[in-house]
Amino acid sequence: METKVSEIADGIFRLSTHVPELGSPRGFTFNQFLVKGEEPLMFHTGLCKMFELNREAVGRIIPPEKLRWIAYGHFEADECGAMNEWLSIAPHATAAQGETGVMVSLNDFADRPARSLKDGEVIDLGGKRVRFIDTPHTPHGWDAGVLLEVTTNTLLCGDLFTQFGNETALTDGDIVGPAIEAEDFFKFSSLNPGMGDTLRLLSKLEPAKLALMHGPTFEGDGGAALRNLANDYDRRIRNVSPGLRQAA
Ligand SMILES: [Fe+2]
Ligand SMILES: [Fe+2]
Q: What is the model's pTM?
């Protein structure tokens, strides 16, 4: 396995590792994102077993020990499995997540005290700013959230739009169809009546880029992509809930 590094927006780097044998004949990709401010931030740690790959890849951009923030979307191995490995090599790094995630998991899991972020709270990285946005149970996890890099209007959207394969780092093609295919296969989302509205709230940010954890970074009409994904989740929820089907 190798980890490719691409700058997907000004000062935002995608560290991408493709696992050919996972998920489908096209394999599955794990991406981490490094936001290079005066206080560099990494969004998701990657799997514990991929730590050395990701450390080497971060080292192509900054000295890894300079990391200041380590954030992630929700508590899961690919999101935060290597948290303590990163904390051990970056002595000034602080783990950061939403209030639910810190209360439920991070306070116990992380080797150092974590920073608890309110919904909408901004961390100034110096040259870059990131806003944490709660998205409970969307696509899964009570503690789920996403991160918006404000200066580039790039939404680091974690598992949203998960797809198979090993696309180019950037695409302006369709990301909703591939996400529907992956949802049909994995059934990874916690289908709940609030999903559509959660995604429609995100769509109001009209992101210029959607940085997928498992897929390419989309550049184009991010708001429309989020609304289309919201509509597909609404369709799924109507199909599993007779009451909602009647109300529709
Ligand atoms: Fe996940
Ligand atoms: Fe993930």
A: 0.95
Instruction: For residue 57, report the phi and psi dihedrals to the nearest 5 degrees.
Output: -70, -45
Listed residue (226, 219, 222, 224) closest to 10, CA to CA? 219
Neighbours of ion ligand 2 (CB under 5 A): 78, 159, 213
DSSP letters spanning 101-115: HIIIIIHHHSSSPPE
Give the Å distance between the CA of 29 and the centre of ligand 2.
9
pLDDT, tens digit (0-9, with 9 covering 90-100), for 26-59: 999 999 999 999 999 999 999 999 999 999 999 9
| Tens-digit pLDDT profile for residues 77-122 | 999 999 999 999 999 999 999 999 999 999 999 999 999 999 999 9
**CA 242 / ligand 2 centre spacing (Å):** 30
211 in Cβ contact with 156 (< 8 Å): yes
Tokens of 168: 């180019």
113 alpha carbon – ligand 2 mean position (Å): 24
The residues, ordered by sequence, that sit 6+ positions from 184 with a Cβ below 8 Å of its Cβ are none
